[in-house]
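Homework-ish question, so no full write-ups if that breaks the rules, but can someone show me the predicted structure for this set?
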Amino acid sequence: MELIDKLSILADAAKYDASCASSGAPKRSSEGKGGLGSANGIGICHSYTPDGRCVSLLKVLLTNFCLYDCQYCVNRRSSNVPRARFNPEEVVRLTLDFYRRNYVSGLFLSSGIIRSADYTMEQLVTVARTLREVHEFRGYIHLKAIPDADPRLIEQAGQYADRLSVNVELPTGESLRVLAPEKQLITIHQAMDTIHQGQQAVAGEARAPEFIPAGQSTQMIIGADTTDDSTILRSAESLYGNFKLKRVYYSAFSPIPDSPGSVPLAPPPLLREHRLYQADFLLRGYGYQANELLSGPGNLALDIDPKLAWALEHRDMFPLDLNRAEPAMIARVPGIGIRTTKRIVELRRQRRIRYADLARLRCVLAKAKPFVVTADYHPPQADTSSQALRLAMVERPQPQQLGLWG
Amino acid sequence: MICLECDGLFSQWRQQARWLLSHQVDPSQVSWNGEREADLFSAPHGLPAEPGPFQSRIPQALPPLLESASQYLGEQRWSLLYEVLWRVSHGDRTAMLAGDAIGSELHRRTKQVSREAHHLHAFLRFVERPEADDGPAYVAWHEPAHDILERAAVHFVGRMGRQRWLIATPRDGVFYDGNTLHYERACPPAWADLARGQGDSTHALWRAYYAHTFNPARVNPGIMQGHMPTRFWKLLPEGDLIPKLVAQARHGKQRDGQAQAVALRAGKAIAGRPGLPAAQPAPDGTSKP
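A: Not a homework solution, just the prediction itself:
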């Protein structure tokens, strides 16, 4: 099989993993040195595909032969997909060739499980080791850690990779039992813990060798089972807490060819995935708790974003006087982000904040208006009920032309 | 009205601005590079020969901010900077904050400039020259909207190691010989020819990768365009694939995420019970249906 055919099959097989970040790597440079590649912590999206997703890394599987039969996965044992396998040298060469031409900033390598978890993990480590030691490659490497692999192999992988990820795939043990019979939540958590221990062993030791400086991440598939957003967010929150994950990715289940009866035939609304990312961002960056965003079971609202939903439920805290409020509270106003909050605080040291300043600071005024007080403005909607406000602020979807093929 | 010329150089503008400030010349009395039509009632004249008496202190953060904004190509490129400088040196620090009318424009410019530098780092594509003499082994043609090349090209020194490379644009160009960066404000025609006249066989692999990593079940061209402005498409080896992929995803019987080319191939389900190593890929990596 030609290299280009393998690349086509194994890129197609790898695209359901949403992560493509290349940020968070420490400063590395090849200036005046042999080898290739640099990193400075900032990710680069070298291209965007027409689905709007960033192409930052060469994202491929080493092979899509797989012993497992996970129902949501296009590469499951029983799936009728074309199969291919790279040898490690081919992946190394593709990575370097793509990197030199500035197509990508590094490699994201995953694999189907062949022979055994250990064998598969060894193959992934071989690619990373060859890149780093033989070719002195200083670009970004993200490796998938295989849950049942020997912890020593996972530790080795961590010495070469900038990021490791173990996918939890489904947020509950019960869903895994039904849809991914070969996977277990406990071994997934053990692998995450192995990685977390490795990070802690070098934390604070300036001279220790690096261990996944860009942290660990995971992915959950949304809409392949009936788990609600509340369970998903709580599970994400405990992953952030227990294993200090850098990111949890949410991937809306994408229907696959020859779909088995156990998974849905239609995708969930992409907006659901988007709302989960927004909520996740509020957990990581804004200090919200999962139970503030969703107090009981259920899903996030699709028609308004989670920050606006929270503000509408806590009208007693608003309107907020931007000239006096704590920065952490300002960041909770819908339409005002962390960056704008900093700028507001900077400006109010010089003079009082006025309404026109908010427009210049690029706040989303349509959202912020009912919730803020400035030197020259008090919201006329301060006494409007939350329900009426919500009706006025829902994002109405654009009318859609019906598809010719239904 | 004082009309000045700074040849597009921040260092030169900075000297002129310092001089003007020492004479307390009001921003409305000065223009650069013929930005403003000479006023009908005022005769153009140059700078006074001696520095003036006025002395001021400005915050340390201001010069880098002005320098960054100076790379923006647009109306009143230099006089806007002088107005900010004048106001800050006369005690009005809000002029350099994003909440102020002119400060907001200043920050918009620095943001555009850093975005354009990021576009260079992201969307530039090097082409390999197979028989490179002592010239560059990798060449690229890029069309930045702002004057960012000189500062932004340094990124590739760290990235490419000891390789020799060249970047040419319609305005300027830069060549790295493995040790030193050579910058030319006017791109030599030989550089431009070198950068534009090359093909690269690896582009075919990249195009295949691009088409297959795309998930047609999630097609959303609006978001893509927001991140990757259309003006760059013609410079990208994958650029001409975009309309085709969008059309295929929208008008075909696309119901899942698999690329059509892969769907057309013969598939292979793997026999075997869980836990048993039944599937053994052939050593040459092929699968037989």
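Now go work out the reasoning yourself. Hint: The mean pLDDT of chain A is 92.
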